[in-house]
Specification:
alpha/beta; 2 domains; elongated; Thrombin, subunit H; about 260 residues; Rossmann fold; five-stranded parallel beta sheet
């Protein structure tokens, strides 16, 4: 082997070693952040974030000072219908516009404009960036979706059992509460993607008490009457039931997009 070839191999090996060390460090940071999320997770996020790791996600950053945009490859942390978290080697200003090029489950890259909403220092030169998409994305394009966790309160046992069955068939994990008190216990002890109640099971006072716990995800009502005006003050959205296969699909779609 010539000296030139030897030096070239040495430089390549050194670069590869540095890359592996940096990759190991990034993976370690992502693991630490995921542990942090597990400790403080709850139903206080507007939309559930799912782990989404791509160590080389292409992002274009449009700087607030008007300089030319920067293209870089960043490691991503998690993803939701409304936004993404990724790591970057320097501070990025809130309000900056970015374009995130996401690879979907079929390997197709899709372009998603977004705005940086937060930037926090993590360690070393690493910052965590949170960006909100200009419009919601179809999360199922990019990750294998976890079943929705639903808390339910019905005053009709038969309708409740049918509803549970249909929502399970739609890929959700519904859990019935026996009373308003049990419902409040459920949402303070577990993470739920939505609350679904029937008719007059829930009062405005109950909804207010639920919101005071910090729960900000959808509260949905099922009405057997097409006149839903009296429920609109208690629910974010009212659906006319009973819960059929088509309505179960509509509920799941609505909750995932919320």
């Amino acid at each position: 082997m010539t000296k030139r070839a030897s030096n070239k191999k040495s430089n390549r090996d050194k670069a590869l070693r540095v890359f592996r060390e940096l990759s190991d460090e990034i993976v370690s940071v992502l693991d630490e952040l995921e542990d942090e999320t597990d400790q403080f997770s709850g139903s206080k996020r507007a939309s559930r974030r799912q782990s989404f790791r791509d160590l080389e996600c292409h992002v274009d950053i449009y700087h607030t000072n008007g300089t030319a945009p920067t293209s870089c490859l960043v490691p991503t942390r998690d993803l939701s219908t409304t936004g993404i978290a990724f790591l970057h080697r320097s501070y990025l200003h809130t309000g900056s516009q970015v374009t995130v090029h996401l690879r979907d489950l079929q390997g197709v890259t899709r372009t998603n404009p977004a705005t940086i909403m937060r930037c926090r220092y993590v360690k070393g030169m690493i910052h965590e960036i949170g960006a909100r998409f200009a419009k919601p994305i179809d999360l199922g394009r990019y990750v294998e979706l976890e079943p929705l966790r639903l808390a339910m309160l019905f005053d009709d046992d038969s309708a409740a059992q049918v509803g549970v069955h249909q929502l399970m068939c739609a890929g959700s994990e519904p859990e019935l509460a026996e009373s308003v008190e049990k419902l409040q216990e459920l949402i303070t002890s577990k993470e739920f993607d939505a609350i679904i109640f029937q008719g007059d099971c829930v009062t405005e006072e109950t909804v207010s008490a639920i919101r005071k716990t910090g729960y900000i995800r959808p509260i949905l009502a099922i009405s057997s009457d097409s006149d839903t005006a009296d429920l609109k003050d208690r629910a974010d959205h009212v659906f006319v039931g009973p819960i059929s296969p088509s309505l179960a699909g509509e509920l799941v779609e609505h909750i995932r997009a919320a």
